[in-house]
Here is the input.
Amino acid sequence: MSNNDTNREDKLKILERALDTFNRILERCWLCPRKCGVNRLNGEKGFCKSAKEIYISSFGPHFGEEKVLVGRFGSGTIFFTGCNLGCVYCQNYTISQLYEGYRISERELADIMLSLQQKGCHNINLVTPTHLVPQIMRALYYAIKEGLTVPLVFNCGGYESLSIIQMLKGIIDIYMPDIKYWESSASEQFSNAKDYPLIAKTAVKEMYNQVGDLLIDKEGVAYKGLLIRHLVLPNNLAGSKEILEFISTHISKYSFINIMDQYRPCFEAFKYPQLSRSITIEEYKRVIELAHSYGLKRGFL
Here is the structure.
């Protein structure tokens, strides 16, 4: 039996044991730290605006992700509609906040995953999956049973329930969380999540404990590990210095970090003077210098 076959069998066993538990969570939803407690199986909706149905906005080979995910043939991205965060500057707000998308079944989601693999995509990149984990897990069960072997990427905002991340152990190959804020005052004002800093730090530690530093094959494509994203905000609103120090000290100096410079005012950002401009070159360079000063080297050069 090949390594891929062994990995498939292991994932199927984990999923078989977990699917009923995942489904029961929707009866009184606590998938994310908000713990809305709504019965999504009966059509009730909480903060994320999602009931039991899956809505996506798009899918396909994506060449705009990190190079280690894109490779030659692209990252097989699936963009899910809705979000458990309320970022006032979200660049994808029509999807996350306005719920732009269309409904698909779990079976159709499995077929999408298999089709992306067939097209040569190096991974299945689940974008904003947090609020739909039970449905995605059932689709994965179908897909893996029918031959899905490429790595699974959990591409999330970092606002994750520790219990749910622990349940994903052995299923997810690559975790790609944001670490957005260091201070709760900023996370409350700009993402409606006062407890975000503590939640994100705890979740990312667990992700690292499961998969370790990012592993990359001889073709330059990642197949397992942690990839952290950090968006530089104007006026140091993210607390980049403290976040980088945390990563270096409490995660790993070998952490692969995408320090992102693409912030621009979107959605409702113009309502907040501190967020109403793009970042400057100097602000971005300063964060890169800080990363170097803490011994971080991977991902942002």
Notes: Residues 91 and 163 are 29 Å apart (CA to CA).
